[in-house]
């Protein structure tokens, strides 16, 4: 008789522990997540403590500025007894300092703000010797004055002059250490009178300034319906032509030597208005007719040149401007530009102007990347001599700090 297979022995069941209330609740609502106790909010800072820390930082900053001023004074002594303040000024060194400020900046303040702060510190330190005298197209309140303040700081002494020609004359005569003159606008192109001055002047370009230009319509009453005539520099009329055509088509447009001069005239009558910057409005007590700028281009920028009597050493990031007169022959311009291409020099700008030496003879203003002391620039200029009637080095100067 066959044996029946043995039945498997049943395993003894172990009793499961009763679920806790939280587990039971989670099972009943499977989508629910366990509640997490939020971290306690950090205590609010004590205002007196924060102010005390700011006061401590301010004392440290002030002490460091004083220390910097003392070292700047020692630099002046190390150079020996020089003739005037202009002999202590080194634009290439200032450009290097400001580029380091930009490179170090990690916020929260913008590059523009920090560059402005350091420019004023350097301006004040330099003025310990003697303030620089800077000629510009006046009167007070022009964009040229704003360019002077941006490049030289408020410790420099601004000399408002009646014309661009007079700026060149005063610098050449030594009555001004440097001059600041407009040379081109991003929307309207070249200021021809400035280029023409270089045809006969021996001054050199020592720097450049890029200034964002915002044009406002301003008047004594601040009412658009009162305006029957508008004063402005011819460049400003071109920069605001669209707005004027749309809003003041019948108003008389009266050109003046500068926007500040227009503001000076507009302050004497309720039916007159002027185009210019906010600074001109503050100086001559005018109100904005409209709150927003009226220029055609929102990114309207004017480039200014700093003119002086010498060329300064390289800052490491420079531009060179040359004036070239060429022989009248086929391919003459190609022969002028080829040496720069062969030596890897970028051309930033070229502009032709009548030479005033002979009929139909032209000179070419050329802006090049690099310094005249650079080996590649020297080689290119040496080649250029064979193809040109005359080469005039207008200057080598630091590229404008962005």
UniProtKB/TrEMBL annotation:
Pfam families on file: ACT (PF01842), CM_2 (PF01817), PDT (PF00800)
Keyword Ligase: no
Segments forming domain Prephenate dehydratase: 133-309
Location of this chain's protein in the cell: Cytoplasm
Domain Chorismate mutase as annotated: residue spans: 41-133
Pathway as given in its UniProt record: Metabolic intermediate biosynthesis; prephenate biosynthesis; prephenate from chorismate: step 1/1; Amino-acid biosynthesis; L-phenylalanine biosynthesis; phenylpyruvate from prephenate: step 1/1
SMART domains according to UniProt: CM_2
Reactions the enzyme catalyzes: prephenate + H(+) = 3-phenylpyruvate + CO2 + H2O; chorismate = prephenate
GO molecular function: prephenate dehydratase activity
Chief subcellular location: cytoplasm
UniProt keyword terms in alphabetical order: Amino-acid biosynthesis, Aromatic amino acid biosynthesis, Cytoplasm, Isomerase, Lyase, Multifunctional enzyme, Phenylalanine biosynthesis
Name of this chain's protein: Bifunctional chorismate mutase/prephenate dehydratase
